[in-house]
Every structure is written in structure tokens, then in C-alpha cells.
Amino acid sequence: MKKTILNAPEIARIVTRIAHEILEKNKGFKDIALVGIRTGGVFLANRIHRKILEIDSVAVSLGELDVTLHRDDLSLKKQVPTIQTTSIPFDLTSLTVVLVDDVLFTGRTIRAAMDELIDFGRPKQIQLAVLIDRGHRELPIRADFVGKNLPTARNETVEVQWKETGGDDQVCVINCEEGN
């Protein structure tokens, strides 16, 4: 069973709100960088980046992060993971870095992202922006900016679709039967 939770206009409103919240919390755009976690976080970071440009006519630094090699579940994977591009073309030192991801679940991806980020420098602060917070944390990580809190069961999957990958922007919850 698949249920649509957010559609394209709702996602657009969330992006606008998160962009405003980031600017408000950080008292403007000075010394802020957005870093999207591959893959969905990159799409969301790009949209927040464009919205901040629209709001304040300033392009904040923007990067992309692949956390594959910092994941703690690499040895559990049956398939060899695909390494994607990491691009952080600016110095992180003394910046407030806003990590951006589409879904926050156990917190393990965010931990891996912070480990990877520190390889590029020492930010003044790391904040976290997510489209969906679905709960079930295994690590003490919380988002500073949340599009939607979406309590889920363990047997449910949150699927985020982006127009950049050929579909319509939407967030769905899929109920998977236990044991499958």
C-alpha cells in the first residue's frame, strides 16, 4: 500500500519555509554553506539554495557530499556500493554548514556525513535540514530545520520522488509486510 503524504506544491512551500528559517536562525546569509547529502539531499539543497538567492539575492556556498565510505553498514551490504561525487569547492573553516538530506531516520547517514564533512575542514557549526523526520533514531541526532515530522512504523518506507529524477515531486509512505 502506497500513500502520498506531500505533493509538489506542499514540498515547494516547505522549501520556502526552511530557507526562511535558515536565514532567520543564522541572522542572514553571512558565513553559511549548504551541503546536500547524495542523492535526495542534493536536490533539496539546490532548491533551498535557489530560494535563498530569491529571498536575499545572495548565492550562499553550495556543496554535495557522498557518505558511502563513511557508512557503518558497508560490511553488511551484499552489493558493492557505488561511490558518487563529493564536491565541496570552498573552505569550511569558520562557516556554519547546513547539512541537507531528504529523510532523517536512524541518524546513521547524518553521522557518516559529519565524519565526511570534517575531512574537508572544521566548520564553526553544523546544522541539519531535512524534508522528512520519520523518527526511529538510533543515534542522538536531531534536525534544526524539519519540513514535516512523519511518525512511521518500522515496516514502512518513506519514498521521496524528485522531478530531477524524472517523476513528480512527492513524498509517499509504503507499507511493507513484515518478513518481506
Question: What does this molecule look like?
Answer:
The mean pLDDT is 92. Strand 4 (96-104), helix 3 and strand 5 form a beta-alpha-beta unit. This protein is globular. It has a single domain, classed as Rossmann fold, CATH 3.40.50. The protein is built from three helices and eight strands. The strands form two sheets. Strands 3-2-4-5-6 form a five-stranded parallel beta sheet. Strands 1-8-7 form a three-stranded antiparallel beta sheet. The protein starts with a strand and ends in a 5-residue tail after the last strand. It has helices spanning 8-25, 40-56, 108-118; strands at 2-6, 32-37, 61-65, 96-104, 125-133, 145-149, 156-161, 170-175.
Task: Provide the descriptors you would attach to this structure in a database record.
three-stranded antiparallel β-sheet, 180 residues, five-stranded parallel β-sheet, Rossmann fold
Q: How are strands sequenced across the largest beta sheet?
A: 3-2-4-5-6
Q: What percent of residues adopt helix (DSSP H or I)? A: 25-40%
Report the count of strand segments. Answer: 8
Query: Based on the structure, what is the oligomeric state of the protein chains?
Result: single chain
Total of domains:
1
- The secondary structure category is alpha/beta
Strand content: 25-35%
Q: What is the mean predicted local confidence, pLDDT? A: 92
CATH architecture: 3-Layer(aba) Sandwich
Largest sheet: 5 strands, parallel
- H/E element sequence: EHEHEEHEEEE
Low-confidence stretches: none
Backbone shape = globular
CATH class: Alpha Beta
